[in-house]
Amino acid sequence: EAGVAQSPRYKIIEKRQSVAFWCNPISGHATLYWYQQILGQGPKLLIQFQNNGVVDDSQLPKDRFSAERLKGVDSTLKIQPAKLEDSAVYLCASSLIRGDPNSYEQYFGPGTRLTVT
Amino acid sequence: DAKTTQPTSMDCAEGRAANLPCNHSTISGNEYVYWYRQIHSQGPQYIIHGLKNNETNEMASLIITEDRKSSTLILPHATLRDTAVYYCIVRVFGNEKLTFGTGTRLTIIP
């Protein structure tokens, strides 16, 4: 089965510019996540969607970050305007809620490496 | 979610068993132990999870102590491709959220 697709893989922008990342989850996966991973740290959840509704966006800096998941499939994450501290890898993941609610397994894409100069 | 403590880094000789410890002394009865790993320039990959019994799959074995305060991930015959950062995560029953720490950087030595 095809994995989680993300694009672009790399992006370099100047501070105060805007940028958008795209994610296509595994077919049939209702839940989609965006994570931010700063160098040397583990991924940090930014936002979680269930179909096209937001489940958790408590750690999303809403003054500059936005995300949407139209039609409950693909998703985009946008940063506007970017700051130097936004330099990180942005990971998208998806999961399928199986019959056993204790077996959530998230499948991650390769990520987009963002450098803000 | 309960906090986990892992060594920052470990080395293991190729072909030997790699044993990665994790301390989760504040784990509660409704929390599972999950392990993910992240190979360089890739997203994290699920390995295994358990509640209180030992678990084994095609990738690894998970040994959870009887008091559930610690666990060990075992890669039985480590290969160079097992070089990665390994994350031990405690996850609440029914909660999809994953909270990653800084993990253990495992290096397999030829």
Supply database-style keywords.
heterodimer, A: 117 residues, mainly beta, seven-stranded mixed β-sheet, four-stranded antiparallel β-sheet, 11 strands, 0% helix, B: 110 residues, five-stranded mixed β-sheet, globular
Protein model, in words:
The complex is a heterodimer of chains A (117) and B (110). Chain A is built from no helices and eleven strands. In chain A, a hairpin with a 6-residue loop joins β4 and β5. Chain A is globular and about 40 Å long. In chain A, strands 2, 4, 5, 6, 9, 10 and 11 form a seven-stranded mixed β-sheet that branches. Chain A has a four-stranded antiparallel β-sheet with strand order 1-3-8-7, with no helix packed on it. Chain A is mostly beta strands and 117 residues long. Chain B starts with 8 loop residues before the first strand and ends with a strand. In chain B, the strands form two sheets. A five-stranded mixed β-sheet of chain B has the order 1-9-8-3-4, with no helix packed on it. A four-stranded antiparallel β-sheet of chain B has the order 2-7-6-5, with no helix packed on it. The radius of gyration of chain B is 13 Å and the shape is globular. Chain B is 0% helix and 47% strand. Chain B is an all-beta fold and 110 residues long. Chain B has strands spanning 9-13, 18-23, 31-38, 45-50, 55-56, 61-64, 70-75, 84-92, 104-109. At the A-B interface, β5, β9 and β10 of A face β4 of B.
